[in-house]
Amino acid sequence: MKNYIKIFIIYILLFFYQLYAVEEWIYIYHPTLKDPYVRTKINDYKIISITGFKIDQEGNLSQDVNLKSYENILKNKNVYPLVTLKNTKEGIQFLKNSSNYPKAIKNIVNLIEPFSGVHIDFEYLSEKETPYFKDFLKELQNVLKQSNKKLTVAIFPPIWEIKYNKFHNLSILHPYIDEIVLMTYDYHNPKTNPGPVSELSWAEKNIQESLKYFKPHQIYLGIPLYGYEWEIKTNRSRIVDFSYSKKILYSNEIKEVQTSLNFGTKIVYNKNQKVLFYPDSNFRKEMINLAHHYRLKGIAYWRLGFEK
What we know:
This protein is 33% helix and 25% strand. It has 308 residues and is α/β, with parallel strands linked by helices. It is globular and about 60 Å long.
């Protein structure tokens, strides 16, 4: 009888785990589509966002990758082409001139016709452009609804000591977005002092703030697969992947290693001249647990290949 009770409990736990399981979204940098490793690992994910699409000041859409060439590996996937602005200057001019919106929207609709929707990633603009961004998203969402396509948007964390996150003013934008990827990475970056690329406590604060405007099923929690290495004296930095951090971690060099569930792994080495922060697998598991705790729609990794 006791065994039956145990089996019953296991089934119940599995049921609730599946009920609240988070979806996994992966970003792909389009040049890496030629990498055999990336092409193989794509099979592990159902939701994919691929870079390589840019809007200029007139609403023209340039394409650095032909997704038709990859139909065989994208089959049965939920694909969201990632659309950015050509540059900041042209982005401002585009958003301020609403007469260019119809052309851009038509180009986006044609691009995503065989796919699930579009992922808009407009960054590094000021809060002065937010009302224009709202107008563009409103028009785009109205058109996408007609063909049952999703409008997803990459969002800077609202709690962050940088000025560019104010462009993504959730109180203004939220009615015109179906789902967001909350980009809880680059907490420390080349423009800051050395530090973790993300922190669990920081991510949780931003989840709580975002939930004031979005339902849990509208949010994907962004998780980094990359870290940074700094030269301590010059503060110069560079992106590092898992293989590089592993190489440093297991080298014979004298080093100081600190691990934390709040941020991952920190390594000080090269005679205390360099420091490396990497969001290791234990940290990423904690981020996934955080997404489970808040019943979020899923998690989103930036980007495929960095974990190699």
